[in-house]
Every structure is written in structure tokens, then in C-alpha cells.
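Preliminary data (for renewal application), zinc ion complex.
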Amino acid sequence: MHGSRMLIWVTQMASDVKLAEVVRSFEKDMVKALGDMISIPSISPESGGEGEYDRAEFLVSLLRENGITAIERCDAPDRKAKKGRRPNIIATVGSGRSSLWVISHMDTVPVGDRTLWKTDPFSAAVKNGKIYGRGSEDNGQSLIASLFAAKAAMQLGVSSSVKLAFVSDEELGSAKGITYVASKGKFAKGDEFLVPDAGSSKGDEIEIAEKHSLWARVKTEGRQTHASMPTTGVNAKVAASRFLVFARDYLYSRYSARDDLFQPVPYSTFEPTRQMSNVENVNTIPGTDEFYIDSRILPSYNLGRILSDMREIADVFSRQTGARIKVEVFRKSTAASPTSKDSVIATKTAEAVRRVLGIEPRFVGIGGGTCANIVRARGFQAAVWSTEDGMAHQPNEYSVIRNMVSDAGVMTSMFVS
Ligand SMILES: [Zn+2]
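Predicted structure:
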């Protein structure tokens, strides 16, 4: 090896060892911080909670205790929430014209069926290297990891401006969370974003693209009648079923493009899902029918066109059957343009994963939606990455302590490089 390259390599090795040492020294504090945070419920008012206020107050103190004092609040008003607001925290370390943001969310989904939990979801249980509790993995693990990564970076030397955003309202669409923060002009040209809110259990997947999602409600109105005299009514179930089968086949064949970035489903999907109940008895022809279609659509397609195709098909089958079939948007999210594999944030994340975890990451697209979609839609580059077992929204949700610590290492490496 050439002398100067040897020197660079040795220096790099030494700094990697130092980084790992510093981050590992925080392990106990990280476990305690995540445990304390789990004991403060942070469920949105729409899901029956008080919102994120108490958890935000705790996090502000935690930041201060750890020497991170440049803290800004960007709370969104919400009369239904505690203190009338949905808190958003922006904590800055280092300085520079543009910033590397790490966005994690404070809110959690509700407990779900309480009887399925083996421990109290709001009291952290530490067992076999895991921390159990609601919100432990989604998104507590990453939030705490980012906080201690910022602390580590301050000790090792932050390279430029790093902004930690702890946001509200992610689980229900982010209007009072990251969307609100963006609307207040907090992002600057050249800013880049890491969203540690999805990933694989090895930490080897960096998400750079998301699909559109369209949840459509299909309501059919026919005319109820006795099952022995079908001609005196219009069977809504039959009309809806005809529409369903044709629409599904049509959409799959018309929008059949493949994009291998998206795994394991490299194409768009159009699946009838929830079916509402209709009549209670066997011998009545139902006069109404209601079901849902969950579509996940490649970003290259236009969501509006797909919706109007669905409506056109509904019209055709309405005329054919004599029923009235209506397609309504129940929920939709438009996918922003994907972030390039060659973007600064994608390259930087991959490099840190290689260095700290010693593995080769791959770039992927996913069917779900994260805060990354919201910043991408505003023209920024964002990578979604973390190491997780996929326990989000499940009973007995846990965070693997080793993942929290090593993810903090990866983030630290991004902050100091
Ligand atoms: Zn999440």
C-alpha cells in the first residue's frame, strides 16, 4: 500500500474505533431514555389519546440534559390535543448553510387488543436484549438513536449542521407534523433528509422510493327485494361483484409496468379488501353494497387517471346493471419523485452503513408511506433507513437494543464525516 493511503486508512480505522467506543458508552443512557419515553403515552386525539405534549416536554429536557441546547419549537395548533397543540421539536447541533435532517416521530398508534400484550405497553420491560412497549420500535428506537448520535458527534466533531426533528401526527398523515414544519419554511435549499422509520432487520435496505396509495370506497345502490322474486329488485351485491372483477382485471392489465426497485412487489396492485356487511338474512336480495379497494401504484403512473378509470368502469356497470355504483376516495397519498441512488443523502447513508455495520446495503422502494414522501414532494432528497424487526403497530412491540446502538453509530458516522 502507498504510504499516504496507508496513513488515511490507519487514521480512518482509528476514528471508526473511537466512534464505536463513544456510541457504545451511551448504551445504558439510551436504554433508560427509551424506557422513560415509553411510559409517556403519545397517541393522537383522533385515536383516543391526548397528543404528544407530555412526551415532547420530556424530550426537550432529555436534549438539554445531553448538552443539546439549540432547541426550537414549531407546534401546530389543535384544539383536541393537550394544551391545544401538537408539538414539533427541532434541535440543532453544528452549523452550516445547509443541514442534514433526521426526522423521527413522537406519536404512536394505540395499544390495540390489550389482552395480547404480555407486559404493560406503557411500562418498558427489558428482556433478552429487547425493550418492550408501545412505540419502542416505531419510532422510539430511531428517535433516541438520533439524539445520542448527535451527542456523540458533538464529542467527536460535527462536520456541519445537523437538525433532529421530533414530529407529531405521523401515524395519521402528518398534517400537524412534518407537513406543518415544512409549511413554516424550516427547510433550506440543499438540505437533505434521513428518515429512520422503515428498514430491514439487518439494516441493509435504504428506501429511496415509495408507491402512490389509493384507498377507494365503492358504494353500490340497487333495490332490496325478496330473494324469491329477483326481478322486482336490483341486486347490489351482483352489480358490485361484476364491477369488482372487471375493474381489478382491467387495472392490473392497463397499469402493468414493472420497476424492480420495488421488492417484493415490483408492480402496481389493486386489491379489493374490506367488505361491509349488508343484509342479515339469507332470503333478502341486498339493496346496498359497500367495499374498499387498496391500490399501491408505481410512482410513474398518474393517480388521477386511475381514479377516473375506476369511475368510468363504475358508470358502465351502473348502466348495465341498473344499480348506482359510486367510487369515492377514502384516503390517498401521491408518491413524490424517487430520490436518486446517486444523491448525496443516498450515498452518505450507504457509506455509513458499510463503515459501521460492515455490510453492503441495497436501494429499495416500498409500498407504504413515510415522512420522506412529504419532503420529497417539496423537492428534497430523502433516504429512509433503520435496522428494525418490523414490530410497528403489533402487540408486544419491541426494540432490539443492539439495533438502537448500532443505528446511533451509523447516524454518528453521517454527522461527523
Ligand atoms: Zn413510524
